[in-house]
């Protein structure tokens, strides 16, 4: 029953992302499903457009499906949450693809690591679309992370819907 409930929450959150880049002065808020080894969760981010191709922002993620480690210890709130500052280079118009497509590589600096991400979004209308993003750590603060420290120090895949706020 727990796995079924978690799967329903995951599928539901896959359709609730809010992120659409329009350029300088644009503000986005997104919610995506976060999928990784030993956990899945939800992610919220807010990005602010600084120029035609640059945005900065922050994100926080919370892992939902982590119950205990191999020793039977249960994770607390601090083990499940991560907060990051991020920088994106929005390159959709640089690659001369449709205005509805945006491709954005970026860097992030968080509580657990320094990492990079690559995302793409397709906008069906000016305010609604879909988005997908992968992320990975470049430098971990604890290179030999054990236990719950490994949760927020690995490859992630995020998917969701996109809304321009």
Which helices and strands occur, and which strands form pairs?
Elements: H1 2-13, E1 27-36, E2 39-49, E3 54-63, H2 77-80, E4 81-89, E5 101-110, E6 113-123, E7 128-140, E8 156-163
Antiparallel strand pairs: 1-2, 1-8, 2-3, 3-4, 4-5, 5-6, 6-7, 7-8
The CATH architecture classification is: Beta Barrel
H/E element order: HEEEHEEEEE
What is the CATH T-level topology? Porin
The Rg value, from CA coordinates, equals 16 Å
Helical fraction equals: under 10%
Strand content: over 45%
Give the N-to-C terminal Cα separation.
Answer: 36 Å
Given helix and strand content, the structural type is mainly beta
Sheet having the most strands: 8 strands, antiparallel, barrel
Shape: elongated
Provide the CATH top-level class: Mainly Beta
Strand order of the largest sheet: 1-2-3-4-5-6-7-8
Structure description:
- With 165 residues, the chain is mainly beta.
- It has one domain (2-163): Porin, CATH 2.40.160.20.
- 10% of the residues lie in helices and 50% in strands.
- It is built from two helices and eight strands.
- It has helices at residues 2-13, 77-80; strands spanning 27-36, 39-49, 54-63, 81-89, 101-110, 113-123, 128-140, 156-163.
- Strands 1-2-3-4-5-6-7-8 form an eight-stranded antiparallel barrel.
- The model is unreliable at 3-21 (pLDDT under 50).
Write a brief caption for the model.
By secondary structure, the protein is mainly β.
Keywords:
single chain, 165 residues, mainly beta, Porin, 8-stranded antiparallel beta barrel, 10% helix, disordered N terminus, DUF6646
């Amino acid at each position: 029953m727990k796995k079924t409930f978690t799967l329903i929450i995951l599928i539901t959150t896959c359709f609730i992302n809010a992120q659409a880049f329009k350029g300088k002065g644009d503000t986005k808020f997104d919610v995506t499903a976060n999928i990784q080894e030993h956990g899945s969760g939800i992610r919220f981010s807010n990005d602010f457009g600084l120029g035609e191709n640059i945005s900065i922002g922050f994100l926080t993620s919370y892992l939902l499906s982590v119950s205990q480690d191999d020793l039977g210890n249960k994770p607390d709130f601090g083990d499940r949450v991560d907060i990051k500052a991020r920088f994106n280079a929005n390159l959709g118009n640089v690659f001369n693809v449709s205005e509805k497509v945006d491709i954005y590589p970026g860097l992030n600096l968080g509580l657990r690591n320094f990492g990079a991400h690559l995302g793409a979004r397709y906008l069906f209308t000016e305010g609604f679309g879909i988005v997908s993003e992968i992320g990975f750590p470049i430098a971990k603060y604890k290179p030999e992370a054990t236990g719950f420290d490994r949760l927020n120090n690995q490859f992630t895949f995020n998917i969701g819907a996109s809304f321009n706020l």
